[in-house]
Amino acid sequence: MKQINYGTYQKPSDYMKFDQGDNVIRIVSVGAFVKRHGMRTAGGYIPLGDCTEKPDCKFCNEGNKAKQKWFWIAYSKTRKEVKMLDAGPQIGDAICTIARNVGKDPREFDLIVTRKGDGLKTRYSVEKGGEEPIPEAEVAGIESMKKYLVHKYIQQGEAPQGQE
Predict the structure, then answer these.
(1) Phi and psi at residue 25, in whole multiples of 5°?
(2) For a surface tag, which of 15, 48, 141, 148 has the fewest beta carbons within 10 Å of its beta carbon?
(3) What Cα–Cα distance (Å) separates residue 159 from each residue in 116, 131, 143?
(4) What is the pTM of this model?
(5) How does 48-71 read in b/e, with b if 16+ C-beta sit within 10 Å?
(6) Mean pLDDT (whole number) for 92-99
């Protein structure tokens, strides 16, 4: 059990959140992408489901446009936590482009995700970081949390299949 620090409290989540400024992460799973339907409401965003990308897609036929989403499990070196990385094109496409340009799997190097702004004015940029291995003392905890997230989200069908 963890004690609550009210000064730094943030709602718990299995999904990665980025602080303002630079955030150093390492991808720890294979990636996947999917087109996902959802709708914005006054209270936030409501996911509706994955697009079948077929003429009979219920959400497409109702006029709801799907957005491209990228998924990984990632380790935040900044926060020392393993989370689901559910990314839109600013981050997802940047990670894939960097990996292609350096000719390496993004599990082999750090990524520096820079967040600027809040709300609808939030912008992200991604650049390649160092290639130092994750310290051995942290690997067991990362693998344990990765297995938990795979079981909770990927094997249960909430995220696209193909993660390891």
Answers:
(1) -130, 160
(2) 15
(3) 27, 28, 18
(4) 0.84
(5) eebbeeeeebebbeeebebeebbb
(6) 98
Q: DSSP class of residue 68?
A: E
pLDDT digits (tens, 9 = 90+) for 59-90: 999 999 999 999 999 999 999 999 999 999 99
Residue ranges in 4-130 assigned as alpha helix (H): 58-61, 89-102
Using CB atoms within 10 Å of the CB of residue 84, give its burial: 0 to 12 exposed, 13 to 18 middle, 19+ buried: buried
Residues 6 or more apart whose Cβ sits within 8 Å of residue 140 = none
Average pLDDT score over the chain: 90
Cβ distance 63 to 138 under 8 Å?
A: no
What is the distance, to the nearest Å, from the Cα of residue 92 to the centroid of all Cα atoms in its chain? 8
Mention every residue, 6+ apart, whose C-beta is less than 8 A from residue 161.
32, 154
